[in-house]
Each structure stands twice: as structure tokens, then as C-alpha cells.
Amino acid sequence: MFFILSKVLAFLLYPLLYVFVLLLVAIFSKNAKWRRRCLLYGVCLLYLFSNSFLQNQFAKAWDVPAAKLENGKVYSTVIILGGFASYDSNAKGMFNAAADRFIQGVLLQKSGRVKHIMITGGNGNLNPGSFREGSWAKGQLKAMQVPDSCVLIEDQSRNTLENASLTKEILQKHGQKGPYLLVTSAFHMRRSLGIFKKKGIDVIPYSCNYIAGTGDASFWEIVPNADTLSKWSTYIKEVIGLTVNRISGKG
What is the 3-state secondary structure (H, E, C) of 133-163? Predict the structure, then answer.
């Protein structure tokens, strides 16, 4: 029920929805006072959520940076959270904008910093079909000549809570000892860490796929940017998700 509810209500997390509603009221309201107010609020809200400077400052405070790894230490397993692949109507997989999760995990294994790669991800859609991210990723690892003996796959999880639960079972089954490196997007790391640690999994953050600016501020950041709207949606989802998990005791 929690999974279904989170998907159904996800559309409420998009700032542009509220801007659209305010502008509709401003257009169709017969009350002149309400029209002016909704128009003003809509424009202000649109600028607020398209302002890259504000979004980048929030992201810098929210994102969890990758931990500095111990020199010479080889970790047993890197856990790569799914979300880096998409698929078409024929269930054909492809890398998406979060592919850096996969890349960083493979680099850790190829460079000898970890022995095993653990991919966790099934299909998080309400109508999942046949595509399973973990199974698809296994084929990609094989194509990159990562030995099967170094690969662990979990392909049934639908969200981060299930990622953690099912990953723990597999790691215990195969006798893998922590601490493990946890690879996911920087915006998702704070919530992921809370969930994995709540499950008793000893993980070290190895963030990647930074979607917000990480450099110095510039004048152009105050110019409205359409791409910033989607970034705010991503971070709002993470903030609400973390809040709900803490209230419910899940992370």
C-alpha cells in the first residue's frame, strides 16, 4: 500500500503543477482581487523554483559527498542502487541520466578497490512489465568483462526500502562482510544512508551523479532556468521521503 500510495501521489511533488493551478485561477477567476493575487503568486513561485542559485545552495547543503576511502584498503562489496537504466515498449534496457552510478561502481571494481559488485534494482513502475534492472545490468557487466564470480544481483526491489532489505539477505547469504561502499546519486544518498543503516547494513557513502552546480556562484544562476524546475522536484521528493521514513521509523 505504501508503495502504491507513493506513486499515485508523486505528481503533487512537482512545483510547476502549483504554478499552473495559480495561473489557471488568475485566468478564470471572476474576482479581480484573486486574479491579481494568483498571478503574482504564480509568477513568484515560478521564479523561485527556476532560480538555479537557490537550488544549487540547497543542493550543496543536502548532498552527501563521497567519503574519502582508506589508502590501500580493499572493500568486499560495492552496492549500486538501481535507477540508472530505463527501458522502451519492448523492454529493451538503456542507460539514463543516472548512469554515473553504474560507471562509478564498475570503476571501483576495475581499479581493485572492491572485490564484488552488488546491483540492486527491479522495476519501480506501478505496471512493471518484464524488465528488471538488476538482470539487465548483469548483462552489461558481462559485456565489460566483469567476472560472474564478482557479481551479485538483486532484481525484485521496487524502491530504496526494498533495496536495503533484499540486499542485506543476499550479502548475508554470500558471506560478504562490511563495511560496504554504497553508490547512488548525491541527491539520493542522504535518504539511502538512513534506510541502509536502519537495516543494520554497514555502508560508506560513495556519492556520484551530482545534478546541481558544485562550483562557485555566477550571475547567470539568477536567470530563470527551466531545467531547475525538475531538479527541485527531485530534491522535494527526497526531503519528503526522508521525513516520512524518519517518522515511520524506516530510516
Answer: HHHHHHHHHHHCCCCHHHEEEECCCCCHHHH
Question: What band does 148 get if pLDDT is binned at 50, 70 and 90?
Answer: very high
**Which SS3 state, helix, strand or coil, does residue 117 take?**
strand
Provide the b/e sequence for 187-203 (b: ≥16 CB within 10 Å): bbbbbbbbbbeebebeb
In tens, the pLDDT along 162-181 reads 999 999 999 999 999 999 99
Residue type, position 136, single letter: W
- SS3 per-residue string spanning 24-70: HHHHHCCCHHHHHHHHHHHHHHHHHHCCHHHHHHHHHHHCCCCCCCC
How do residues 11-28 score in pLDDT, each as one tens digit?
677 888 899 999 999 999
| Whole-angstrom distance, CA of residue 236 vs CA of residue 31 | 32
Q: How confident is the model at residue 213, as a pLDDT?
A: 76
Give the residues across from 203 on adjacent strands: 180
pTM for the full predicted model: 0.91
Whether the CB-CB separation of 64 and 193 falls below 8 Å is answered with: yes
The domains of the chain, with CATH numbers, are 2-63+222-248 (no CATH), 75-208 (3.40.50.620)
Is the model's pLDDT at 214 over the cut of 90? Answer: no
Which secondary-structure segment (H or E) carries 21? helix 15-28
Which residue is associated with the grid cell 527551466? 226
Report the chain's terminal Cα–Cα distance, integer Å. Answer: 18
pLDDT for 8: 61
Count of CB atoms situated within 10 Å of the CB of 46: 19
